[in-house]
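Internal ticket - ligand job 498, iron/sulfur cluster:
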Amino acid sequence: MGIPVWKQGRTSGEVTGLEDCMGCARCIVSCPTDALAIQDVRNLFRPALRQNASHLLKREPNGSIPRGEIVYRPPVERKHDWQEVAQPFSQQALQLQADRCLDCGVPGCRNACPLGNFIPDWLAATARGDWRQAAELVHATSPLPEVCGTICPQHRLCESGCTRGRLEGAVHIGMVEKSIANQALEAGWRMHEPIRRNSHSAAVIGAGPAGLSCAERLNRAGMSVIVYDRSDKIGGLLQSAVPKFKLDKRLLQRRQAILEQVGVRFSLNTSIDAEMLADLLEKHDAVFLGLGAQKSRSVDLPGKDLPGVEQAIGWLHETNRGARASMSGKHVLVLGGGDSAMDCARSAIRLGAKVSIAYRGPEEHLRASPLETDLAREEGVEFYFDHTPLECTGSGAVCGVRFKTPRGNPHISADSIILAMGQQASPPSWLSGFGIATESDGRIRADERGRTTHPSIWAGGDNTHGPDLAVMAMAAGRKAAEDILAGINGFETMRRQA
Ligand code: SF4
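stdout (structure tokens):
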């Protein structure tokens, strides 16, 4: 932390031995957890006195507030509706939870967040009740904080880096982030329009998390941005594949309105073809591709083409748009072990079906987050582990799946089979006509700045790194935007100097 030392140790400027300590106690007063204490000669006869940061700074020890438990609506209630299942904290409880932040010298939470969010700063603003400043800070690095706060797996991102997590439970970062965005937006807070527009423009293809992130960053820097999407709604898979009980779609509608207010234009219901891309390259300084990875991974499973066998992404899309009839009395069998499998299973429960998930490995290898698995189980989903599917059975229509297990080859009957075995990128083949190279698995080739093999086309998100978290796509979209801006700013500087 830059604390000066005697320089008598092995390494100049670092404390490597007792002889380096000058007894200044700066390390003690900098320690937020009161883990360090100093004993000085004036208190030699008071061994019970612990001179830690709280004692020296005369502050309340920062350890009295426990991590609050998130309350989920009872399964008997929530499995009959499509509302979000987690109950929000009260305002007062939220401020108390935010106040648990120790403001560590090196913020592990920020380092673990793919967006590098200013987490300790917005936690401090929330603890003070300054929602306006918290909203400014939370939007400084994230285009969709209310979405990230809701669907990020915080236990393996920001909250995994929280110092208190190692002591007595991490700060509720996601819950606070979501609440900041919701409270501020409901109270009328809005993002700022760019101070100055410049003459540059960009076209973003795909209104998923990567595209929205890129568009927001470019727009903020003063570029004119238009976002194209073949769907009539923004969000990409957030809109079509994430169930409503995990993400209220009105949040995406609200975010579209906010982005429009600050100048981002949307052209929805618009499919881009080769001719249009050529036109966009003529008109704009940069084109960003955020096409996602929406094609289901092909699996070698006999009987997978029988009626009654569906791919998870298509099944969720139909269900999310309300086009699926009640499944009461039916048995739905989901094959897979990731979050999509849980999403399908929990959606089928809400449609009235009896639902089972069969996964080829043991429970501890499930890719789905433990919370999702617990919620699914509470809602009545039955699990079969170590079940590797051999074939979908049936003639005319599917009637079940035969599995290989350590104990034999059982058959599980079902009326409907959902294959939740992942997605892959599948960009249009005509992109190669623009010199865009792809990898053997279909991903668009791009470097870490999002540069493709075409000088004016950038790409990021699932279409370059494969299916991943929405927050990773947002980070990739922003990185590409930074690179586009660096190129434009460099060009401007050269022009001014010429
Ligand atoms: S974006 Fe995700 S990882 Fe980052 S602070 Fe928010 S919830 Fe945590």
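Auto-summary: Residues 298-421 form a domain with the FAD/NAD(P)-binding domain fold (CATH 3.50.50.60). The chain has a mean pLDDT of 92.
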